[in-house]
Amino acid sequence: MPEARPSILFFHAHPDDEAIFTGGTIARLTALGVGVTVVIATDDHDSSISDCRTRRLEAEAAAATLKVDRLEFLGYPDSGLGPKPARGSFAATPTEEAADRLAGIAVGVGATAIVTYDAGGIYGHPDHLAVHRAGLVAARAAQVPTVYQATVDREHLHFVATHVVGHAVEALMQASSADRPEGMLADALARPIDGKLAGGTPTVLIDTTVDVSDVLDRKRAAMAAHVSQIPPDSEVMLLDDVAFAAVYGHEWYVRSGPSTMLDQLTIP
Ligand SMILES: [Zn+2]
């Protein structure tokens, strides 16, 4: 019997997260023949400026750019940054429910690894925290041996132009100082570095760093496909190639379980 094609499932909170945090890794994996499935939990990130149809079409365009084999939406409403996630939104959904659906997809595609988010949800958005939880539960339920927790390198990003996660953290902090109860924020965000707010994971805790510089054009194109979120005149799209490479030229993970094809992309 021929060996099954390796298959990795990327679980993301919002359309655009897949391109921003893991787009280069996906492009490199698909070039190696790895089957990549992207599952996105929500599809109406900010209903004031876009609708879910727009978001899905943008995600489909990004997925085509990255040569994703299969794109699935769980279809939950975005939970927003209010004091409590809205009823029926993704963060208000029982972890087991979303995890069950994710595990079903993982089994269906024969995933040997699931990519989810770090314990702080990269920057603390309630939907990202929910991705972390459901990703871990789904991996256990589907008996997927390897889990990568996608993150950003907190120290690295401190020294380069602002990553979009920086703006996201600021939005979250503003929302939280207004009405979010103390203690709901990810622990990571409670420790600003030199007055700059921090998300992600400290360098020393990151064991899997992927150099995506050779596929940066496609990562940028995938990010640009999310026009409603990252318009052509946004700060990130106006970065020159050198600055863009400094901020988005690496992708970071913390792995548990056996190594996979993804580890073949890592910087030793
Ligand atoms: Zn997001």
Describe the structure.
By secondary structure, this protein is of the alpha/beta class. It has a single domain (7-255), classed as 3-Layer(aba) Sandwich (Rossmann fold). It is 38% helix and 16% strand. It has helices at residues 17-31, 52-66, 95-109, 126-141, 154-158, 164-179, 216-224, 235-238, 241-248; strands spanning 7-12, 35-42, 70-76, 113-117, 146-151, 208-211, 250-256. Strands 3-2-1-4-5-7-6 form a seven-stranded mixed beta sheet, sandwiched between helices. β2 (35-42), α2 and β3 form a beta-alpha-beta unit. α1 runs parallel beside α2 and α1 runs antiparallel to α7. It is globular, with a radius of gyration of 17 Å. The relative contact order is 0.18. It binds zinc ion. Residues 13-14, 17, 125, 128 line the site of zinc ion (ZN). The site of zinc ion has 5 residues, from loops.
In what range is the share of β-strand residues?
Answer: 15-25%
Major sheet: order of its strands? 3-2-1-4-5-7-6
Q: How large is the radius of gyration?
A: 17 Å
- Work out the number of β strands: 7
The proportion of residues forming helix, as a percent range, comes to 25-40%
Fourth CATH level, the homologous superfamily: LmbE-like
* CATH C-level class: Alpha Beta
Structural class: alpha/beta
The helix-strand sequence is: EHEHEHEHEHHEHHHE
Query: Can you tell me the overall shape?
Result: globular
How many separate domains? Answer: 1
**What is the mean predicted local confidence, pLDDT?**
87
